[in-house]
């Protein structure tokens, strides 16, 4: 059989690495890096090779499933969608629009059709009970961007290819391949920084990135905001450097007042980092081409909102914002900040409403995922009775997943749009199968907008799937049909239905074509601009050059707000909080290069080798608790307990233990055969949904108080609160 090779892109993380896919008939026989991709230049990580495994996985759902008393059965799309919409309409008619909620997971952001069509479905659903992975991950960054620059998607990224000094706080880009920093081949880019200057990692664990850095400093989990305040104080005392932003910044006096509220001695006491090191880091950030980058570790903690704000403020005061080699903004070919027809009105809205039970703040139309269980379990007006889960697995990704799983059983309707029956979908009334990554066109709307160079790349589906037959359908078609059926059920007028149906006629390609033409590099700005046709003729993508200073042009505020009042108010909780208990063990998460959250563990090639779901413990803490290497331990938190294998290492800070994110496949009823053989344990069976950042509402996934106890003999494979979870 003749073999063909097509250029494509890996859609499993933010790096958008170019790949070449070898295909015989309809079978993927090989995947390798694309050396002609001007951005990734042939780099891929192990995950990319698993795209073919997902495409051909016999465990993948291929027809709609409906729950019955004896398990799932296949049904037609018409029957599934008809019943789902009828039940949705009935619930909302009786209990109000907010009675049906939605949760959107990370994979949706890597899907062109989902990015363009799922938001329309959510607007049609009309519920204030909308949730997503945002409040488990990058909400503090987005909140700071909205308040400081005027739009939640105006998040600046490190100019890694031109900086000489980079300080990384709570990030591990060698494993994450970036994260709010689209940078394929990031390991080589970081090695180049270390070779020409200084690469510093501040983290409670000596991560894979720290191992390549010129220096690493331990920091106590949850204290990143204290370090940022110390850096801010030193920089302001030495005099701010606004560079080209001089005359365009507001809030300087307030920032001085903020810095004056702390002493370096207090910073050191909280963080465990001595005063001289704080001064040294501040001096390094004074370099002409220097950048401070913070990620998940700095966000997913109790002071995450303050950290997100101070990360940008420190870069601004050091003169590193919107300057080559510093923290810069993209000019993407398809602009999510100013899509076709959008105004330049600032989007700074925050806490326009609050959650019904705990009063947690709304941001960008969403409520914090940590309160979803509350909204399901608590009776009263607005109680969540139905839920759509789109490309997500919150039972493993949200805090206190065990409680959320119990809450899902109370729902009158649960619909999962996914590739698999995962730990969340196993409780669903319907599972609607979506087209896998190699079966759909791709343009990365989100992550070209966060890239360390201005780039553009369109990928025609290597194995095109019609997506309108009996088997899996494209996410955008599922969203569009649910929306149209719901409008008909409500008796919407013809004009309203036609306006919502117009995007069906365009399809993702039509919308992409329009976005490119009207974007900053499109024909709208000159005959030589980028079009969809031009991108199709260059399947490996195009490089539009390095990032350029543009924040005053891009920001709808046209000024930098250094000290937004709502963010400054978050300091009161930080500074007024109790001192840390030095005797308390604190739990942090971690990620793995061969995992993508919870859903790549069914690819056999990625599951080879020793177990990666282990508890990292410092030798001193292990000795104090009688823990043995390769032995077993019970880890307990306020909400649960798990039994895990122990790995003793001095790569973890004393007083800190670590479990990886995304495991916990021991639950019965999932369709993942390989994953079940390497089940591991979910760190989010220990994280506490009652603990959130009081400013932003982001989940607290790092710095969780735990107890660790050695196990002398064998116990059940997985217990939470003493209950064997395999039979739940």
Description:
The chain is of the alpha/beta class and 728 residues long. The protein folds into four domains: 3-56, Phosphorylase Kinase, domain 1; 65-137 and 336-546, Rossmann fold, CATH 3.40.50.740; 159-323 and 551-573, Dimethylsulfoxide Reductase, domain 2, CATH 3.40.228; 589-727, Barwin-like endoglucanases (Beta Barrel). It contains 23 helices and 30 strands. It has a seven-stranded mixed beta sheet with strand order 5-4-19-18-17-6-7, covered by helices on one side. A six-stranded mixed barrel has the order 23-27-24-26-25-28. A four-stranded parallel beta sheet has the order 11-10-9-13. Helix 2 (77-95) packs across helix 16 (475-489), helix 3 packs antiparallel against helix 17 (494-518) and helix 7 (224-238) runs antiparallel to helix 9. It starts with a strand and ends with a strand.
CATH A-level architecture of the largest domain: 3-Layer(aba) Sandwich
If you consult CATH, what is the topology of the largest domain?
A: Rossmann fold
Unreliable residue stretches: 714-728
How many runs of DSSP E, i.e. beta strands?
Answer: 30
* Structural class by secondary-structure content: alpha/beta
Portion in strands: 15-25%
Number of self-contained structural domains: 4
User: For the terminal residues, how far apart are their CA atoms?
Assistant: 47 Å
Q: Approximately how much helix is present in the residues? A: 25-40%
Number of helical segments? Answer: 23
Q: Report the biggest beta sheet as strand number plus sense, adding barrel if it closes.
A: 7 strands, mixed
Described by the principal axes of the CA atoms, the overall outline is globular
**Order of strands side by side in the largest beta sheet?**
5-4-19-18-17-6-7
What's the mean pLDDT score? 93
CATH class of the largest domain: Alpha Beta
Radius of gyration equals: 25 Å
């Amino acid at each position: 059989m003749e073999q063909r090779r097509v250029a494509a892109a890996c859609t499993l993380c933010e790096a958008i690495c170019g790949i070449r896919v070898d295909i015989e008939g309809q079978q993927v026989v090989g995947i390798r890096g694309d050396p002609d991709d001007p951005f990734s230049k042939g780099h891929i990580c192990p995950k990319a090779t698993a795209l073919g495994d997902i495409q051909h996985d016999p465990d993948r759902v291929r027809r709609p499933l409906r729950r019955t008393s004896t398990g799932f059965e296949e049904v037609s799309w018409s029957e599934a969608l008809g019943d789902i919409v009828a039940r949705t309409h009935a619930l909302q008619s009786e209990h109000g629009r907010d009675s049906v909620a939605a949760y959107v997971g990370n994979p949706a952001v890597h899907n062109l059709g989902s990015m363009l069509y799922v938001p329309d479905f959510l607007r049609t659903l009309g519920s204030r009970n909308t949730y997503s992975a945002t409040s488990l991950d990058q909400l503090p960054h987005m909140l700071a961007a909205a308040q400081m620059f005027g739009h939640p998607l105006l998040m600046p990224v490190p100019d890694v290819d031109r900086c000489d000094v980079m300080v990384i706080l709570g990030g591990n880009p060698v494993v994450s391949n970036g994260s709010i920093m689209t940078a394929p081949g990031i390991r080589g880019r970081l090695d180049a920084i270390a070779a020409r200057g200084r690469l510093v990692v501040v983290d409670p664990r000596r991560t894979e990135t720290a191992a390549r850095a010129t220096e690493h400093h331990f920091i106590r989990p949850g204290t990143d905001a204290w370090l940022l305040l110390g850096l801010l104080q030193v920089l302001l005392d030495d005099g701010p450097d606004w560079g080209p932003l001089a005359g365009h910044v507001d809030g300087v006096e307030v920032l001085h007042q903020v810095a004056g509220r702390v002493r370096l001695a207090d910073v050191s006491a909280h963080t465990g980092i001595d005063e001289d090191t704080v001064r040294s880091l501040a001096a390094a950030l004074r370099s002409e081409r220097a950048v401070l980058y913070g990620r998940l570790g700095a966000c997913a903690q109790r002071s995450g909102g303050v950290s997100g704000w101070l990360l940008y403020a420190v870069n601004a005061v050091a003169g590193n914002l919107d300057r080559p080699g510093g923290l810069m903004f993209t000019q993407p070919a398809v602009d999510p900040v100013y899509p076709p027809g959008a105004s330049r009105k600032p989007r700074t809205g925050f806490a326009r409403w609050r959650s019904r039970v705990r009063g947690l703040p709304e941001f960008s139309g969403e409520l914090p995922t940590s309160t979803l269980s509350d909204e399901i379990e608590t009776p009263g007006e607005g109680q969540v009775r139905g839920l759509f889960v789109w490309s997500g697995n919150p039972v493993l990704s949200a805090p206190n997943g065990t409680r959320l799983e119990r809450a899902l059983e109370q729902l009158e309707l649960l619909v999962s749009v996914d590739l698999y029956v995962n730990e969340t979908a196993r409780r669903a009334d319907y599972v609607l199968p979506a087209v896998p990554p190699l079966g759909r066109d791709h343009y990365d709307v989100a992550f070209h907008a966060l890239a360390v160079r201005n780039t553009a790349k369109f990928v025609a589906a290597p194995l095109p799937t019609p997506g309108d037959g009996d088997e899996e359908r494209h996410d955008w078609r599922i969203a569009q049909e649910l929306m149209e059926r719901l409008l008909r059920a409500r008796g919407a007028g013809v004009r309203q239905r036609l306006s919502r149906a117009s995007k069906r006629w365009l399809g993702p390609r039509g919308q992409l074509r329009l976005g490119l033409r009207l974007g900053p590099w499109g024909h709208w700005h000159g005959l030589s601009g980028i079009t969809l046709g031009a991108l199709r003729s260059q399947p490996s993508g195009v490089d539009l050059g390095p990032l350029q200073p543009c924040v005053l042009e891009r920001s709808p505020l046209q000024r930098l707000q250094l000290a937004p009042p709502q963010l400054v108010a978050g300091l009161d909780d930080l500074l007024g909080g109790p001192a840390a208990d030095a005797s308390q063990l604190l739990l942090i998460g971690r990620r793995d290069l061969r995992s993508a959250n919870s859903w790549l563990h069914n690819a056999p090639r990625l599951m080879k080798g020793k177990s990666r779901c282990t508890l990292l413990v410092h030798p001193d803490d292990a000795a104090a608790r009688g823990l043995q290497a390769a032995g077993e331990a019970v880890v307990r938190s306020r909400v649960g307990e798990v039994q895990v294998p122990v790995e003793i290492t001095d790569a973890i800070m004393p007083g800190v233990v670590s479990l990886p994110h995304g495991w916990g496949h021991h639950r019965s009823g999932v369709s993942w055969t390989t994953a079940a053989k390497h089940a591991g344990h979910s760190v989010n069976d220990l994280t506490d949904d009652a603990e959130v950042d009081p400013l932003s509402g982001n989940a607290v996934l790092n710095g969780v108080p735990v107890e660790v106890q050695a196990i002398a003999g064998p116990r059940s494979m997985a217990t939470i609160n003493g209950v064997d979870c395999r039979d739940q």
